[in-house]
User: Which sequence fits this backbone?
């Protein structure tokens, strides 16, 4: 537990910018008395959007004159926009003025700038993106979700160690289980890199349960699923597409004719908890782990509820000293490996 | 259109063997008058299970003394069980006694034996596994679903050409669209092998629409999605896990209390078409493409309806001369490439 928690928000990022970030920020301030926020972006616009709330002791505004566009090349955003709201928010973390930052901006740019400004922690070659997905029992954290397309076995092992410690810290589980994503066909049982990664992870003194398959992500029987960013991203996007299709087919079923509509009205409250359970807004907020600072990525089209959830993820990481704990764990595991 | 269609069935394969294969076989014979079946397995058992149906002119029984176990190593099945029902069914295709074979047995063994016995067609290095999945509009064919974990760009291009021609033949579409599975992050836009594959496929004179992402599998906006077997298998299994979770959560919602149960009873018939639409039994039957023979793999735990669907897939491939058409297309594309 820390007693202060300052979070910098990239107000200009995402599809909706201030229209979503500012209401979400105000919601968080109301709910979490220990949180202060630095709103980064066009000062006049922010001040205007805040209205009376601008007077709050727990809100600071930091002007930034530029904005990273959603489809801008990361290298261009990194080199060409030193005063973007995204860059300034990350700089605030680097300087120690903020404990964490949250952005709904372009993932590639966020990763590139965060890596450049904050650097990776010792023992970690590449940061990874981790996020929870709903499972039949609780939820499952999956990494990497798209930061790294070509991973070595060593990278996968680093991801496993970071995911393990992040979930330990956030969820208070003594020893969460870690699975390595693989495919089950006998003759092929994984490619070479996955086989080597399994050996490395087994040596890392974490609760490694071995290979898991795609369907295990949704059972909740494993806490952390490790894979490379290409596969993780495909699994995530495929899931999004399938969930969308299923919900749309259900909606169609309940609107096919007047009788179906009536049944749909009755079913709506019954299905409400189910909708809540799989509502992606409640899972918004992916963490960039492996950096020397806490950076949380919100979905680009997040609404107020979803963006507030991403801020909450950052708050929890600060509260549970995730950064410090991952650093210690990585140092311990990889020092032990080197001396072994 | 061919006027005869003989399909060999591996009666011993799958979780249920004859208990599923024989009723499914009888269903198919009733529905499809041009089909004859060769039932391969323990002759006495099959004769017994068939009862009076054994007298049908359209049923032949071929004894096989061994059985490939579901978790048997493919190499062991290939070398050690020359008289397995799976092997004999594939041998029948090789000899020309059958036009196609269907097995619910171990995928790895089926692929290994089929490759060894039938060989690949000229221009194809490796066979792939292709199957349809339901989409919001119609369905989408995805390959490779797990036969090849480490694919080169050339392999992906071969998969694209085979998938294109298979869907053209089966669905009668003049020019179905082919997408290459990738991830959308700007900085990383695919790994090297995917980028190279995109160039090769673009040169293949098929309707290549470029990169697609995981969610596009379920929109139905693309007819064929090409990826390597590791990613394809993860996407498939992840989808299975998610669909299972969603259906279970819906079931839980409708059993939470007496009122919910009542609404559930009313909703059941309304949701029936939705259930049908995503029922995996209707999508059972993955094709091993790239071989000099038609081999269809049924899900191991397929029931009677699902296994009949797999036989139907084989029947359609025979009817539409898929093998011949893929061979011609591959020869054409890759000959053109060599001379270019």
Assistant:
């Amino acid at each position: 537990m820390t007693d202060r928690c300052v979070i910098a928000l990239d107000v200009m990022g995402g599809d909706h910018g201030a229209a979503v970030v500012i209401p979400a920020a105000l919601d968080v301030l109301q709910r979490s008395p220990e949180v202060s926020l630095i709103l980064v972006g066009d000062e006049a616009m922010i001040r205007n959007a805040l209205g009376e709330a601008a007077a709050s002791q727990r809100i600071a505004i930091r002007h930034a004159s530029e904005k990273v566009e959603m489809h801008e090349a990361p290298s261009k955003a990194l080199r060409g926009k030193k005063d973007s709201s995204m860059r300034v928010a990350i700089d605030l973390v680097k300087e120690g003025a903020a404990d964490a930052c949250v952005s709904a901006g372009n993932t590639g740019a966020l990763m590139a700038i965060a890596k450049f400004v904050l650097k990776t922690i010792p023992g970690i070659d590449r940061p990874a993106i981790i996020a929870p997905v709903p499972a039949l029992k609780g939820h499952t954290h999956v990494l990497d979700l798209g930061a790294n397309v070509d991973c070595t076995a060593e990278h996968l092992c680093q991801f496993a160690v970071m995911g393990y410690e992040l979930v330990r810290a956030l969820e208070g589980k003594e020893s969460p289980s870690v699975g390595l994503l693989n495919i089950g066909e006998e003759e092929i049982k994984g490619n070479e890199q996955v086989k080597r990664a399994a050996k490395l992870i087994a040596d890392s003194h974490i609760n490694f349960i071995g290979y898991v398959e795609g369907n295990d992500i949704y059972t909740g029987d494993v806490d952390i699923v490790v894979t490379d960013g290409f596969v993780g991203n495909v699994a995530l996007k495929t899931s999004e597409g399938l969930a969308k299709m299923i919900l749309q087919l259900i909606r169609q079923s309940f609107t096919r004719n007047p009788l179906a509509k009536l049944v749909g009205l009755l079913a709506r409250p019954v299905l409400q908890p189910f909708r809540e359970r799989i509502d992606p807004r409640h899972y918004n907020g992916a963490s960039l782990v492996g950096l020397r600072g806490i950076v949380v990525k919100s979905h680009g089209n997040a609404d107020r509820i979803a963006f507030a959830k991403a801020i909450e993820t950052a708050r929890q990481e600060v509260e549970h000293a995730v950064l410090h704990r991952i650093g210690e764990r990585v140092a311990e595991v990889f020092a032990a490996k080197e001396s072994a």
